[in-house]
Write a structure and sequence with these properties.
The chain is mainly α. Helices cover 68% and strands 0% of the residues. Helix 1 (2-34) packs antiparallel against helix 2, helix 4 (107-115) crosses helix 5 and helix 5 runs antiparallel to helix 6.
Length: 160
């Protein structure tokens, strides 16, 4: 349990760093937008980027609070937690036929399918309305320098 909690803190730390890089990328976009002549379109672009940054900052603040809580929990109950087994075996009361089991895809699975272009990212996509998912996709395509896909994603979100 202690290792899982420490891993969670580490994952949160990595997510915060990722978000800070994303904020920096968006700041660079904002600087470019500011070079455009003043117009309603420019204002809308700026508003969208500022709103994305606000959401990212909110997420980071919540992640930091969660990290602090976990760290305090670990400090307060370290002795008790060290006696707790790292793994617990849970017996499955419903043993079902393997053929009847339904495969449930997680967010990460949908992300992989989407970035590999195995499934289309459109208004039918299960994470289409998830702003965090869209930011992650955009960040990924920026990282791999697929700017056409970035433009398509931004266009899809702007038109929804």
């Amino acid at each position: 349990m202690v290792e899982n909690l420490k891993s969670t803190v580490e994952v949160l730390k990595q997510r915060i760093k990722f978000n800070l890089n994303l904020i920096h990328e968006i700041e660079l976009e904002i600087k470019e937008i500011l070079k455009e002549p003043v117009s309603k379109e420019r204002s809308e672009k700026l508003d969208r980027r500022f709103n994305i940054n606000k959401q990212i900052i909110k997420e980071n603040n919540e992640a930091i609070k969660l990290q602090k809580s976990i760290i305090e929990f670990l400090k307060s109950y370290h002795d008790e937690l060290s006696q707790f087994p790292e793994t617990i075996e849970v017996e499955n009361p419903k043993k079902t036929n393997a053929l009847s089991k339904k495969i449930e895809l997680k967010r990460e699975d949908y992300f992989e399918l989407t970035v590999n272009k195995d499934i289309e990212y459109d208004n039918q996509h299960p994470y289409f309305k998830d702003e965090s998912f869209a930011r992650d996709l955009i960040s990924y395509f920026i990282e791999v320098e697929d700017y056409e896909m970035c433009a398509k994603l931004v266009s899809l979100k702007d038109n929804s």
